[in-house]
Design a protein that fits this description.
Heterodimer of an alpha and a beta chain. Its cofactor is thiamine diphosphate. It comes from Cryobacterium tagatosivorans. Keywords: Oxidoreductase, Pyruvate, Thiamine pyrophosphate. This protein is an alpha/beta fold. It is globular. The termini are far apart. Bound molecules: thiamine diphosphate and magnesium ion. The site of thiamine diphosphate (TPP) has 15 residues, from strand 4.
Length: 331
């Protein structure tokens, strides 16, 4: 290595960990796409490919006692939160071994043990839930953070404004994470909003808000840590607008006629995984054998998850109405 090497990472081990986390999400979802094409997974499927730096960077700053909510594009969030890849895939297969016994599917992953509150298919539906969870924490005097991920499409919903208003008014411990990938299905942000600077909308509710390069996992983590620390210290809600891009179609049923191939190609150049990997390699902090090992381990995890899901048992339809009412007796 010569003296012209790229800048070194202060904590290369942690940077390699983040790289691995992003790759886990990427490889799991590439497998989902393949399984979907083979009709092993049915229903809707929305992948997060291209946006991995967002959930990875934010999630790295959360504690086990915190809560997380996400949208229907939430496989990566669930995985990073600690839900096993096997339980996620089995859920998509409709198998009992899934995190919701196969009753939720791709859009409704949920896991009480890791305080992962979905998996919300309704655009902006997670925001009022996040505000409720944070209100409960505030009333109980618990120092926990509720991180709520949602797309920029949520900004057009009344729930977004009601939730931000109450969170600010009551100074609730919520971290709002807007995954601004510029499109809500086929509608470009500039075609639906008069003000496209989303952080400004949050600032209008007196919520500290800033925009972050959502393709740079270290930038996301740094911003999220600042925000999470402030929320946990009693600083009220904070808001991050994470500027990102989905590399794939909205869902598996989207012919993608609303955006230019050239635009997609431009964003592909900013792939968050390639970006971090090359920077680490250039700094001499990721050897080929390290990268090979990361890939091998991640591929093995995904393969084990597929085997687990395949070996599962379909949730029987004759029990369909079970759990409509809670089986737990009231305290
Ligand atoms: C209340 C509501 N309206 C409409 C829909 C249909 N719908 C599903 S996804 C989507 C676009 C949401 O885009 P965005 O919030 O930017 O998230 P992204 O898919 O880009 O991650 C819409 C309109 C819905 N699920 N819920
Ligand atoms: Mg969007």
């Amino acid at each position: 290595m010569t003296g012209t090497a790229a800048p070194a990472f202060a904590d290369p081990k942690h940077a390699r960990h983040l790289l691995r986390q992003m790759l886990r999400v990427r490889r799991l979802e590439e497998k989902c796409v393949q399984l979907y094409s083979e009709a092993k997974i049915r229903g809707f499927l929305h992948v997060y490919i291209g946006e991995e730096a967002v959930a990875t960077g934010v999630m790295a700053t959360l504690q086990p006692e915190d809560a997380v909510l996400a949208t229907y594009r939430e496989h990566g969030h669930a995985l990073l939160r600690g839900v096993a890849a096997g339980a996620i895939l089995a859920e998509m297969y409709g198998h009992q071994e899934g995190c919701c016994r196969g009753r939720g599917g791709s859009m409704h992953l949920f896991d009480a043990a890791t305080r992962f509150y979905g998996g919300n298919a309704i655009v902006a539906g997670g925001l009022p839930l996040a505000v409720g969870l944070a209100l409960a924490d505030k009333l109980a005097g618990r120092r926990r953070v509720t991180a709520c991920f949602f797309g920029e499409g949520a900004v057009a919903e009344g729930e977004f404004h009601e939730s931000l208003n109450l969170a600010a008014l009551w100074q609730l411990p919520v971290l709002f994470c807007c995954e601004n990938n510029l499109y809500a299905m086929g509608t470009a942000l500039r075609r639906s909003e008069s003000q496209t600077d989303i952080a400004l909308k949050a600032a209008a509710y007196e919520i500290p808000a800033w925009a972050v390069d959502g393709m740079d996992v270290l930038a996301v983590e740094e911003a999220a840590r600042r925000a999470t620390d402030a929320v946990r210290a009693g600083g009220g809600p904070h808001f991050l607008e994470l500027r990102t891009y989905r590399f794939r179609a909205h869902s598996m049923f989207d012919p993608e006629r609303y955006r230019d191939k050239a635009e997609v190609a431009e964003w592909l150049e900013r792939d968050p995984i390639d970006h971090l990997r090359s920077a680490l390699e250039a700094a001499g902090q990721l050897r080929k054998k390290d990268w090979d090992a990361i890939q091998r381990e991640v591929d093995a995890e995904v393969q084990a998850a597929v085997d687990f899901a395949e070996a599962g048992t379909p949730e029987p339809t004759d029990e369909l109405t079970r759990f409509v009412y809670s089986e737990r007796s009231a305290p």
